[in-house]
Amino acid sequence: MLAALRPLAVPALAAFLLAQDPQPTPAPAGEPPAAEAEKPAAAPPVEQWDDRRAKDAVRTLTKVFKAKTSSMRDRSLALDELATAANKAFVKPLADIVANDKSVVIRRRAAELLGRQPAKEGNRAIVNLLDDGDVQAEPNVAADLVKSLSKCGYTAKNWETVGELFESEYAIERVPLQEAILELVIAHKEKQAIPVLLRNIDEPVPSDVHGQNNPPAAYWEARWKSWNSWRLQVKEALFAITGQRFSSAKEAKIWLDKNKLE
Which of 129-133, 183-187, 203-207 has the weakest average pLDDT? Predict the structure, then answer.
């Protein structure tokens, strides 16, 4: 059905893929829209713990995570004890949990808590984790790390690590990671992201459907579904950086050629 992907079939492909995704059910009268109703609660304020208190907490955390009889609930409760805590002593054990725990849920929680630690140590640990192939293989864990990096001393030199993740693979499972990267770009107005944004603003279609090196139809289907999830964020990211609204890469390139970004 999608094998040939002849040029005239592209609109039909888009229509077909849209038809596969169920449309959201309107909220009953008097109820807030789902997006509004499901807004996450604000994170509790962070308290800087003194070194002695932090050392004791690390000892307890390590004991729980090393115990062979430790359940997921035990590990989750141990992390909850650090929900509002910040100290450089927490960075290494939290990073170890992100890298090694068998539960994705626990790894994601540790990744979130890393973003609340002192920026100098926390930033370095998060970047190192994002460079880890095993971490990259869990898009939701990587997404939480990107969100934490955005709040933990993000600087332009971190973009090399983050930017590579956006286009490394197009699959619906990686959408949360791509969305987190776009959120970071918007928050920090990261100009280095412009090439990535320009490559992903337009609807993805093969330049030569009959070319020998053209990826298979499954690739284009996955890429289109991913693009359809975050395409508006790409435009918002370009707006955050340039202050201009663009509908296509061509339009954006014309403006960028005539205007120098500070």
Answer: 203-207
Q: Are 184 and 190 in contact (CB under 8 A)?
A: yes
pTM: predicted TM-score of the whole model, two decimal places: 0.82
Answer whether 152's CB lies under 8 Å from 114's CB: yes
Residue 143 to residue 98: CA distance in whole angstroms: 12
Q: Is 218 or 145 the better-scoring residue by pLDDT?
A: 145
pLDDT at 18 over 50: no
Q: What is the DSSP letter of 153?
A: T
8 A C-beta contact, residue 255 and residue 246: yes
Cβ atoms within 10 Å of 200's Cβ, excluding its own? 22
- What CA–CA distance (Å, rounded) separates 167 from 169? 5
Q: How would you label 7-19 residue by residue, b for 16+ Cβ within 10 Å and e otherwise?
A: eeebeebeeeeee
